[in-house]
Amino acid sequence: MLGFVVRRLILVIPSLAGLLVLTFFLIRVVPADPAAALAGENATPAQIAEIRHQYGFDQPLLVQFGVYLAQVARLDFGESAYSRRPVSVDIKQRLPATLELTLAALIFATALGIPLGTLAAVYHNRWPDTVLRILSVGGVAIAAFWFAIELQLVFAMDLGWLPLRGRLSPGLAPPALVTGFYLIDSLITGRLDAFGDALRHLILPAFTLSLGGLATITRFTRAGVLDTLQKDFVTYERAQGFPAGPLIWKFVLRNSVVAAITQIGLLFGGLIAGAVVVETIFDWPGIGFYTVQAILTADTKVMLAITLLIGVIYAFVNILVDVVHGLIDPRLREND
Amino acid sequence: MTADPLLEVKNLRLSVRTDEGVAQILDHVELTVARGQILGVVGESGCGKSTLARAVLGIFPKAARIESGEIRFEGQDLLALSDADMTRLVRGRRIGFIPQDPYLALNPVFKIGAQLLAAMRWHAAQPTSEAARRAELVALLRRVQLPEPEAVLERYPHQFSGGQRQRLLIAGALAARPALLIADEPTTALDVTTQLEILKLLQALTQEFGVSMVFVTHDFGVVAELCDVTTVMYAGQTVETGPTGAVLAAPRHPYTQALIACHPDRAAALIGIPGQVPSPLAPPPGCRFAPRCPTAADVCRRRRSRLVADAPAHGVNCRLADERLAARQAGVGA
Amino acid sequence: MLILVKFAKDKPAVLGAAIVLAVVAMAILAPLIAPYPGDVAASHLLQRLKPPSPEHPFGTDNLGRDILSRVILGARGALMIALLVVGISMAIGVPLGLIAGYQQGWLSQTIMRVTDIFLAVPQLILALALAQLMGPSLESAMLALTLTYWPFFTRIVYAETRRLAAALFIDALQCIGAGASRILFLHILPNAISPIIVRATIGMGFTILVAAVLGFLGMGATPPDPDWGLAIAESRQYLPEAWWFSTFPGLAIFLTVLGFNLLGDGLRDIVDPRLRRSR
To answer: Which of A231, A235, A243 lies nearest to residue B59, judging by beta carbons?
Structure first.
């Protein structure tokens, strides 16, 4: 098992290397004059020349790349033109908010999607299946930003059941910083008031974010279970008197989720992108919001750092997916 | 006074709805298994023997319907039981199943121990401890000649060969000490040497555990080796049944006679039976072998399929048997 | 013919086809069927933010424009963006996939590595960054979307080409001296058409969604375009009172994308009989 994980880790390196080269190209080579791009619109020629020298744009490309790699290794991404703080500090502060949102959405989508997909397969071609299939197709057709606005309209504005925006109500102090996840930190430090409040704020954004994933996971689980139900060993287990409950939910399901797990992995990446929109609408102080700000203000250093961050996250999620595949299906662990 | 048969299938008619129409897969099929007996069900591909075997367990294809008939097992009509009751009381517990393809029958993502012990837990007659069941399973695995049984429990199906997997399946079938085993061509997917080993194993085990067996196969050689009694099927009808020796040495139904005659071990040249097996979508009326039978007569097309006593414990589904019976009765009467 | 019959049995697919046809008709006939075609640009401040009524079934927006008309007119922009993006992505991605699948050497590897990298970055983010780089406008949004969508076609065509290239009939063709481009375009491509069509249909829906997001973020269409995403962005400050302002354009997006997705699914089920079991 360990060898399997190590082999996967090694395969990640070329992709990450490619990503580093690509981002370097985008920032140094694509703009005709990177110094001007960094200096901003109102810089004087003297300021631009100063920046060119300061950043070493007058050095040969290979030297620049080396410098770049060293900076990345130190997690030094420079300073954000917008917030005037080191980018790495900004990201460290905001990343937990996005992770909390994304994980909540993922957990919800999986916890609901897998059972629903299984039910759809078990009631194949009867009304529960038809309803779930329509909901699945509908779920991916909904524009997240629109759905978020409609949810706000109904639950926050009209009914007033849930808060409109943010992670916490304005008057409330956030829990002491341990993980950056408000739900965890408030429980650890015994702040139950913060826990309830943070949870209420999490509901609408997480639900919006989870919709596409819920639909996809339901679909793929359904397909996987239908496929498995045709297999010989299921007939055999029925003939051997396996009770219907454990038969479906344990012995069939484990065979059916491989495709769904792949989707969950892909989903994680999609959720990061979706967080961009959801955070913007709900004023959620995460890196999605930060990214949109950076793009709208042409804050290139931030965009670069975010791109690298997303690339790394993707790479590791892919490894995780492979590992889980290996855990579920022992045949995949053998020589690949 | 013979003891009550363990399993009695009477007049079973089963049809399947397909895109092209309704297929009459089983037509008035009859089957009897006595306690301690091994019954071979033999016939060509598509004659319905597998369907019959699985029907006993209540495993039907999706669009299948039982039109009439009775399946009496240990005195109870299985067709009257709900699926839930069949699962709880009969399957795996009173009747064990040995499937055809050992490569596909085991769940690939669970350890052997996990799969087999789960079944044992559900079918335990009295409450037992996990450790006791484990010990029993290990003993059983040893009995089916699998080396290092303790280690076997921790492995996955893909780590075993076909013959080993078949032994695992046999162990699984016997785990709950059923009264009857249904074996659906369990040696077809194996090479000849392994086939022989498995057959010998089955023979020994049925004796030792005192279980009866219904053994489905298309191979007369296997039947000769293993089975006490043989039932021959053709196109969804049971055509002949009797002690294996008698059926093979002196077959009484035209189909069985033709089949045995053209067996490569017996025939001088490679000949077949002229004609083709009818499709279950459009079966000939009455006796389904009539279109190909050298002794067919008009009455064959009207005759309802049923086994007629032709010799001691030897039933034949043919108008010739009717006539012989009538002759004997007339002779007695006169 | 048999294919049409099979398709007709699949109710969700037929629904999808009906929706798509309706939207296409709406886009083509927009100036004729919109009750107030002038509301593309005109404003009637006296009638701003009126709720739905017989004269304005979808209500009016912040400049008094009839929302029903703007929704109908918006279909044009949405479909055009989608057609152009998907069309050009196909034109780029399909040949690349064919070449990468047919060759075995470094060219193939390079193409696929580049494809992988493009696929690794979330489409929305890449599109946003590119749109920003080129200045926000409809054209840059389309260009950005095209540059992020072609890899999907390449990947599918690559897989199909690899599969087909291993087939015996290709060997036979090579034996009688058929050239590579002849083999690729006359023999392999026709066999790979089906997954391409499915992907293109689903891509239409997907593009409309992402284009709407770009419009919403101000990176695509600019006022006074009747863009659906833009309308929703404009509606935000007038909520919750003017609920109709955000709801109807959003429903238009939803139904259109739903239509394309259902149609794409239906096509996939006809095209790939292996997948029919999992329906």
So the answer is: A235
A vs C, Cβ pairs < 8 A, gives 113
Q: What is the pLDDT of residues B61-118, one digit of tens each?
A: 878 999 999 999 998 999 999 989 999 889 988 999 999 899 999 999 899 999 999 9
Surface-to-core class of residue A266, CB atoms within 10 Å of its CB (0-12 exposed, 13-18 middle, 19+ buried): middle
Chain B interface with A: residues with Cβ < 8 Å: 54, 57, 59, 84, 86-88, 90-93, 96-97, 99, 101, 104-110, 115, 118-119, 122-123, 156, 158, 169, 172-173
Q: What is the pLDDT of residues C122-169, one digit of tens each?
A: 777 777 777 777 777 778 888 888 888 898 899 888 888 887 777 777
Q: Which residues of C touch A270 (CB under 8 A)?
A: 122
Which of A30-34, B102-106, B155-159, C249-253 has the weakest average pLDDT? A30-34
Q: Look-up: residue for tokens 């799969």?
A: B115
Interface of A with B (CB under 8 A): 231-233, 235-244, 246, 251, 254-255, 328-331
Q: Do A329 and B101 touch (CB under 8 A)?
A: no
User: How far does A256 lie from chain B, in Å, by closest CA?
Assistant: 10
C261 contacts A141? CB cut-off 8 A: yes
Q: What are the percentages of helix, strand and coil residues in chain C, rounded to 5? A: 80, 0, 20
Q: What is the pTM of this model?
A: 0.80
Read off the DSSP letter of residue C60.
Answer: B
Q: Looking up tokens 């191979």, which residue turns up?
A: B219
Q: Does the ipTM exceed 0.90?
A: no
8 Å CB contact of A18 and C113: yes
- Residue B263 exposed, middle or buried by CB count within 10 Å (0-12, 13-18, 19+): exposed
Q: At what angle do helices A144-151 and C243-271 cross, to 10 degrees?
A: 140
Token pair recorded at residue C224? 């006074």
- Give the Cα separation of C18 and A64 in Å (integer): 57
> Residue A143 class from Cβ within 10 Å (0-12 exposed, 13-18 middle, 19+ buried)?
buried
Under DSSP, the state recorded for B87 is I
Q: What are the backbone dihedrals phi and psi of residue A174, each rounded to the nearest 5 degrees, phi first?
A: -70, 155
Quick one: three-class SS letters along chain A? CHHHHHHHHHHHHHHHHHHHHHHHHHHHHCCCCHHHHHHCCCCCHHHHHHHHHHCCCCCCHHHHHHHHHHHHHCCCCCECCCCCCEHHHHHHHHHHHHHHHHHHHHHHHHHHHHHHHHHHHHCCCCHHHHHHHHHHHHHHHCCHHHHHHHHHHHHHHHCCCCCCCCCCCCCCCCCCCCCCCHHHHHHHCCCHHHHHHHHHHHHHHHHHHHHHHHHHHHHHHHHHHHHHHCCHHHHHHHHCCCCHHHHHHHHHHHHHCHHHHHHHHHHHHHHHHHHHHHHHHHCCCCHHHHHHHHHHCCCHHHHHHHHHHHHHHHHHHHHHHHHHHHHHCHHHHCCC
Interface test with C, best of A123, A293, A295 (most C CBs within 10 A): A295
Nearest to C257 among A133, A141, A145 (CB): A141
Which of A242, A255, A330 minimises the CB distance to B119?
A242
